[in-house]
């Protein structure tokens, strides 16, 4: 088991998850303690969204453990089941980028003032931006970890098709979560309601156009951010290979 975990970049991957966990605590404490000029704290809900974002992260670790410890037949079955749960919960992680909306929905803007010159406003924006960036980072760490498992099983080309499919379907899931307030567990607890909501998109021309446009923009953000992150990873790997040659 230990040898297989090492082949999956442990213990380094474990250190990465610990660092991300610490960053999650810091960013959550920052934003939930941001106050309005009236003294209220408008972003207490972030702790729940952050907890949902960590479900696919923990499932990523579970996938690695299953791959490294179970026998082939049982391992394949458990990987498929756990991978399906990971897939349905995955959009909760990049979903954090849409929480930037709440700054503009809850901050008391005054039309006659330049609100962007107020330090209180930037405390709101930068705190929520940190949450959004962390959501993207955690999502890419989780996705890249699962992609590597897919690459081992089906090869590099299929693993990149897998990435595109996950990012595209996650963009659709983020739309449903943001505008229909849908939850992952609605797939089991309220499938008919979820089907009705999704079907309503195609019944209205304006909503259909909004769905396509919003989902397309989110997919572009996720894909470009993922590729940019991978470029940094590839540069780091090339430098590591150079160091080994010295």
What would you note in describing this structure?
The chain has 246 residues and is mainly α. It is built from ten helices and no strands. It starts with a helix and ends with a helix. 23% of the residues are buried. Residues 242-246 have low confidence and may be disordered.
Global morphology: globular
- Share in β-strands: under 5%
Order of helices and strands: HHHHHHHHHH
- According to DSSP, the number of beta strands is 0
Number of helices: 10
Rounded to the nearest angstrom, the distance between the terminal CA atoms is 31 Å
User: Structural class from helices and strands?
Assistant: mainly alpha
- Assembly category: single chain
Mean pLDDT: 86
Radius of gyration: 20 Å
List low-pLDDT spans: 242-246
Report the sheet with the most strands, covering strand number, pairing sense and barrel closure. Answer: none
What is the helix content?
A: over 70%
Task: Give a brief rundown of this model.
The chain is an all-alpha fold and 246 residues long.
Blueprint (SSEs and pairs):
Blueprint: H1 2-7, H2 12-32, H3 46-69, H4 72-89, H5 101-106, H6 119-154, H7 156-179, H8 186-189, H9 191-203, H10 205-245
Helix pairs in contact: 2-3, 2-6, 3-4, 3-6, 6-7, 7-10, 9-10
């Amino acid at each position: 088991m230990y040898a297989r975990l090492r082949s999956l970049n442990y213990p380094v991957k474990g250190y990465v998850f610990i660092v991300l966990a610490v960053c999650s605590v810091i960013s959550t404490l920052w934003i939930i303690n941001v106050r309005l000029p009236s003294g209220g704290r408008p972003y207490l809900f972030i702790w729940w969204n952050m907890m949902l974002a960590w479900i696919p992260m923990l499932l990523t670790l579970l996938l690695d453990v299953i791959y490294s410890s179970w026998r082939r037949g049982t391992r394949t079955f458990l990987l498929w089941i756990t991978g399906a749960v990971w897939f349905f919960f995955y959009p909760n992680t990049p979903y954090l980028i849409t929480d930037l909306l709440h700054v503009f929905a809850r901050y008391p803007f005054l039309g006659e003032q330049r609100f962007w010159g107020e330090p209180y406003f930037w405390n709101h924006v930068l705190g929520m931006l940190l949450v959004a960036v962390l959501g993207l980072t955690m999502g890419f760490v989780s996705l890249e970890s699962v992609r590597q498992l897919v690459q081992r099983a089906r090869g590099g080309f299929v693993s990149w098709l897998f990435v595109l499919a996950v990012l595209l379907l996650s963009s659709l899931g983020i739309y449903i979560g943001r505008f229909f307030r849908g939850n992952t567990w609605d797939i089991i607890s309220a499938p008919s309601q979820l089907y009705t909501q999704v079907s309503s998109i195609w019944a209205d021309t304006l909503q259909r156009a909004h769905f396509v446009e919003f989902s397309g923009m989110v997919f572009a953000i996720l894909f470009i951010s993922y590729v940019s992150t991978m470029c940094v990873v590839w540069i780091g790997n090339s430098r590591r290979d150079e160091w080994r040659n010295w």
